[in-house]
Amino acid sequence: MSKTLNKEILRLAIPNILANLSVPLISVVDVALMGHLSSETYILAIGFGVTIFNFVYWGFGFLRMGMTGLTAQEVGKGDVDESYRLLFRGLIIAFLGALLLFVFKDYLLQLSLYLIDSNEQVNTQITTYFNVRIFAAPATLGLYAFIGWFLGKQNATIPMIITIAVNVFNAVLSYYLVVNVQMNTSGVALGTVMAQYIGLFMAVVFFLINYKKELTAQALQNILELIALRKFIGVNSDIIIRTLCLIFVLSFFKVMSAKEGVIIGAANVLLLEFMTIAAYGIDGFAFAVEAISGKYFGAKDKLNLSKAIRYCFYWGFVFGGLYAVAFLFFGVDILEVLTSQQEVIRVAKDYLVWLVLFPLLSVVPFIWDGVFIGVTASKAMRNTMLFSTFIIFLPTFYFLQNYFGNHGIWLAFTLFTLARGISQSVLVKKVVYDRV
How many angstroms separate the CA atoms of 371 and 215, rounded? Predict the structure, then answer.
């Protein structure tokens, strides 16, 4: 292996892994805080509340993913001014998106409650959570643009510092507001809102300290240039569809789980926290390969592009294996940290085997996602996700659930993960290597 290339990968991956591992901390703390209250209803409510905002915010995930790939390519080409224009375009879209969310927030909440179709007690807690957390929208979307841009500029340290700080503040503030102020679901939401604005402030400060000196008057021109905007929107529209499919699958998973009963629904919410922990850790290498593949693709360096992808797969499988071992031997211990509801723990233990498989199976689609984003092969990424969602996941879910119940839900999701990786692997030569 090339020591230089591996150092470059780890220079980008390690900060991303450290940052990413702090992300599930928010969700874990939130679920744990609700899991130790008087009823499993709180677990289900916070699970659905987080799902609503995942659906909303991940729909804007292109501001992070598309920004990284496009900026990395401009870095590879040596066009500094255009890399700055990309950031400003992203921030404009972020704040316009936040404005739209405010305007339509009541309709969004009502639609969400209709689709979730839960009981009145759960709906009340979801509404409380939603009406507070929606105020984080400008900060959350602005942070997406900044973090994607920093990564595209081959700087993983600043996103690491911001992400860890945001998530630590979030956990501490949520804990204080729930435990000391007795705010329950509204405390969890308010902690998130406050932490997001702290993060946006940090991003602006880091930008001014580290990058203002590169900013030229020319970089402030043609920000709204039609051709550039069309490319930005074109790439990102594919990423939006891809991301919405992923959110749909996860949201559908939670809604169908709840229809199996409150206990099984709560158990699956807890188990999905395992999946989130593994996903964010492995995604550290996906983020690294986004930045590196974008740079080498922009520079037309096929040799190093190929090597970087291969090495990221090696590291991804190492981390995936470590997660699988940890879930196998410590899964029950993690459940007991998350909740004191013994019936929920008893049910969740029956499905832990699926979480042992997930870290290993997810490496291939995660790394390919990073590559496709980096080289802006967005249509292929979109098409493989549509195939995996509507041709594999939904039909197998409806068939398997009738025979296997909640195990059928998990098996359908496992087949969905496999389908993503296999379909991407089939297309990679055409959409990645043949374009360099």
Answer: 28
